[in-house]
Structure formats: C-alpha cells, structure tokens
Amino acid sequence: MTKPQSILIVGAGIYGITAALELAARGHAVQVFDPGPLPHPDAATTDISKVLRMDYGSDEFYWDLMLAAFDRWDEWNKGFSRPLWHQTGFLMLSRSNWQAGGFEYDSFQVAARRGLPLETLDEQAVRSRFPAWNADLYQTGYYNPRAGWAESGEVLRQLIERCPAAGIQLHANQRFERLLENGSRVGGIQTADGTQHHAEVVIFAAGAWTPALLPHLEDVMWATGQPVYHFRAPTLADYQPPRFPVWNADIANTGWYGFPAKDDGTLKVANHGPGWRVDPHAPRLIPASTEEKFREFFRDTFPGLVDAPKIGERLCLYCDTWDGNFWIDFDPQRPGLLVAAGDSGHGFKFAPMYGEIIADLVEGRPNPWAARFAWREPGDLTHEDARFMEADGSPKRK
User: Fold this and answer.
1) Cβ contacts of residue 14 below 8 Å, gap of 6+?
2) Which of 29, 31, 43, 272 is paired with 57 by a 20 to 30 Å CA distance?
3) How far is Cα of residue 273 from the mean position of the Cα atoms in its chain?
4) What is the structure's pLDDT at 298?
5) What is the pLDDT of residues 347-361, one digit of tens each?
6) Between the CA of residue 154 and those of 43, 197, 283, 328, what are the distances in Å?
7) Range of the domain at 354
8) pLDDT band for position 189 (50/70/90)?
9) How far, in Å, CA of 191 to CA of 199, rounded?
C-alpha cells in the first residue's frame, strides 16, 4: 500500500479536480488552489459543451483511450444529478473524396478494423438525413453513433461539489505566486497573500495559465485563443438530433465543428484552427472580422444559418503543446513538481481518465496511458490537421 502523501494542486479545472478526487479516494491529503471562484468562469472546461468523439484519424492511441473513456462516461452519467453526456452521434463530412492519409479516410479505416458501426454517407444520404447541410458541397462522409457531447461546465461544477465530502480542501480566490523550492526540490507554493503552503507533491494543473506561471515550460507549451460563437437556430427541428448531431466540416482543412442546438435555440459553432497566441491574463478579445468568417462558412455549408442572430461569443484558451499531446509527468529538473496540462484543444473528452493517470504517477505505479504524455524535449512541430499550419500551408512555429 502506498504511503499517504500531502498534495497541493494548482488549478481547479478538469485535470486538477479529477486528480484531486482520485488521490483523495486513495487516502492522500489533498488541497486545491484556484485564483477565481469555483468553477472558474475563464477555465476552458467552463463552457456549455465539449465534443466527445473517438475519431482520431490513424492515431490509434487516442482511439483506445477514448474507447476506455466512453465506458467511464457512461458510469459518470449514472452519478450525476441528471445525464450530462449526450450520445447524439458524430457527423464527419468532407468536401472531396476520401484519400488514404486523410483524416476522414484514416478514421473510417481504423473504425472498420475495430468493428465499430459507422454509417457511410453519400450526397443523397446527406441531403435526406441532414437537410441543414449543403449536400452539393459535402458529398462524402460518415456518421459515428458512439459519440456526442457533454455539458462540460456542469460536469466540472458537480465534480467540484463532491470535493468537500471527499476530504479535499478547496481554496477559491487564492492566486498562485511562486513555487517553494529547496534547491531544486519543490515543497509547496506561496499564494499572492504571502502565505506559504507546504506539501510533498505539487501538481500544476493551471490550463492555459501554466506556461505563464511556470516560464520554464514556454518552449514546450503556450496559450492559444480559439473563437467560439453562439447563434440562435432559426428552427429547432432542423438543428437538433437526429437531423443535426455533433459535426465537423472537412475539419482537416477548415477546422470547423459544432453542436446541435440546445432547447433554447442556442447553437454553438467553433473553429479548431491555428488561433492566436495570447496572454492568458489579458482581456479575451476576438478580432471584429471573425464573425464574418463564420458567416462565410455558413454560406457554403449551412445556408439556413447565414442570417442567424449571434447571441454570444467566447475566446476559448487552449494550452497547446509543441506536438499536440498532453503533458502529464513529473518535472525531471524539479523533484516534487508534477505538471498536468497541455490539453491542446482536445483534452476534455478524456476527463474520466486523468485522475487515474495522475494518481498512478504520484504513487509510482505503472499506467498504460502515461508514456504518451511523458516529459519530452521540444522537437519539430507536427501539424494536427489544420491546427499547426500557417495560412500558406507552412508549419506553424512558436
């Protein structure tokens, strides 16, 4: 049995809270510090929705991780006050025929090898089943029924509510100032009010703020802003399942994805593209020209939404790593410090897996997923679909 340890967690987002709950369940003494109210309104998770999908092109590691995560999402749903993950399916459409090496083609091939029940779609099927789409442009694709979306902000809120009963001390409105170090060893943190808090392990899970607060990580991760808009759906029937599930639109080339309309008509559309390098402490401003880019996309893809009223916008912050993989490991130069960050815009869906991964690392136990997220030196940037490409097609560099 592992000896209980004292653990401080900086950040009460999805990494920090899932780690706290798992570590407390294993008998460790856990405290969580966050600079805002809980949940923090600016945290990436604090949103109305996040996509849950297993489709990852040829990258079978993430397929396997998400297949395991889906089983746990099913279990999580039983423990929420109401179901918070909604299996509406996932629609993947392309503007051109699939080709080997393309995201859609490779995703379909991996799914087929695993016997997953994907439904192929042609122009006629798109036109009849998903009438909001411009089937003249999007003629190829598939529908994956084992997918959907989660009410991410509400998920985080309900997980936070479980913390006091689990023995976790929550410290809201406590801003991190610095690590407490004895030589290279980290033994706690100091908050902005000057109070020092000591522990055997510090877990840094501050999301997009992580590289700003730990500058030695700036070579391997950075904050990126991505635009999210809410529109008012003109009709519910055409923009809710089964006619309008979670979707992406030729995403490897465009970055566009979105969600079915909520019952109040809110329709969330976003772009998973290059984004903008941002200071996470600065005001979150979206360039004024961005809305017109959304409207241009609607003209080609969803003609019925061209004049849909905009009812909200949000600059969602990613903590991007140089290779698009998460960063969950002990700092080899700073014993006692474990970093759990680097969502890279695709992290929330794996929420039920993080607590176990982080807790196993703390306890020195083997974990089948941890190696992919281990500490690593920066290398040549890889492009994750459209994410890491400049407008001229060249690799996007830091």
Assistant:
1) 45, 152, 155, 156, 159, 347, 348, 351, 354
2) 43
3) 14
4) 98
5) 999 999 999 999 999
6) 12, 30, 24, 24
7) 6-373
8) very high
9) 14
